[in-house]
């Protein structure tokens, strides 16, 4: 592994091999309420059918470029939507980048010293991903000088009103409210930032010392410190060249950088809970700052039985058909003899009551089709202690390596309280949008698994037995793929519930959900209503209930945001607990929920309202009283500080809402969910 001598030329080396993958604004360039899929009752999710609109899964950002460390393809597309659709069709894809047709000279990828490392032709569409574990690495550029339209995978259901959002590029900052060097610079943990123009690195033992070095040089915009605690191994930075070794930054090294090009900020970023870097930027830098989500953006948290994603380089979707259900327990079944050229892949669909399996659709890693057969749980869903389930999910999302053994131990006791809690936890998305159940399956199906697949089958069988006893439908699709991504004939398997689905149509979403529109201080709020197809913005506007709202100390908020955002997997629990506690703690937490933490794999960059809703309306929850109580606490807390807010809590049964209640300042009322209401 190369050492510190490469640090100064690090950015140039990264950019020389860069390919574009873009991020987009949260949501849909169409109408603001089209939040539900129509086909088969199965919502569009991370791995949903490619026919779905890409704006349900991807953001859209003008004057923005994002380049992942691994390129999937570079082709042409007639529009940004066409480019996003190409990304949406490949389960590995995390970013797309499109050069508009009207940029006749092509779009340049920014390089050092106000140059371009390369230029792509008008209409170029580049889709990319990051194959690293527990991190997101991307090259990002934004500003008027950047001609690209880009987007990134985001949490399904976070729809937009078609306006360009800055939220996916927000970097948490202190806003000049700190003291000393922190009056001028931000500080973010577990993050690496380096702009395209480098200054000489220096030694530093603390973040304050490193930021101070940047502060002393008026040219410096970004600082990054490899923490001394990293020890002899230093801090690893991936290369865009798949054949090259990563760069190791020595512990105690302070990297200083800037972008010398007018009207843009271009930088390389890595985020991940296990990174030993800390970083920040100068507050005067023309970089994104924390801001409430765009007004008029409805947010939906659906209790979807979604197909879980497979991280790049890990387990992209695979699937298969087993004529009969695999045994719920016991030894695994071999898919095919181990082959050094082939890889075992797996994906899963999990949700209350029943599911249909994901099947191979004939394209590379293309298990996006949904089988016509469906399978039902043998038992009814028991009462779940959702606090314990979410606490378990947060703990294991923060330590993915522990997910396999911890969940396996619980799944081996199907029908027990422990197993039921584990099944509920496995259905939850982590902050990086990877469902916890997928992390479990990776323990049985490691990266680039070239075995006979029997271990993956055994892990799936144990999960299925526990899920079936807990009232959950589960289908894990497993297959062996050749080097070109084609399914090896005869190697597919479905591990699913033993009981065929006998309901009308296919299984659809079941459980509690919620919709809301981002609040604005002192402005009227609107609830959402069902129009027969989707929840859309109501025409009725409601005021806050207080004439003199409480004030929140903004200096205290800055520190609070930094602490909350340092661990996105526990952020929702932290904020929900504070909202329930009332008083000053709830005031602070309520204001925090309108902010965005950063530019990550999570929806809109760790939107704190979304993370908070994950705790209040967990995926697959049937607990209506819990959802209503949480909604009242959140609405009351925002109302107290002058942000009128309305949440429409709804309950779904087999893909259709069966009731909904609006919770708003000073009251609540049911709203119709009948067709055409």
Automatic annotation (TrEMBL):
<feature type="region of interest" description="Disordered">
    <location>
        <begin position="306"/>
        <end position="332"/>
    </location>
</feature>
<keyword id="KW-0732">Signal</keyword>
<dbReference type="Pfam" id="PF14295">
    <property type="entry name" value="PAN_4"/>
</dbReference>
<feature type="signal peptide">
    <location>
        <begin position="1"/>
        <end position="20"/>
    </location>
</feature>
<feature type="domain" description="Apple">
    <location>
        <begin position="203"/>
        <end position="229"/>
    </location>
</feature>
<dbReference type="InterPro" id="IPR003609">
    <property type="entry name" value="Pan_app"/>
</dbReference>
<feature type="domain" description="Apple">
    <location>
        <begin position="76"/>
        <end position="103"/>
    </location>
</feature>
<feature type="compositionally biased region" description="Low complexity">
    <location>
        <begin position="306"/>
        <end position="323"/>
    </location>
</feature>
<protein>
    <recommendedName>
        <fullName>Apple domain-containing protein</fullName>
    </recommendedName>
</protein>
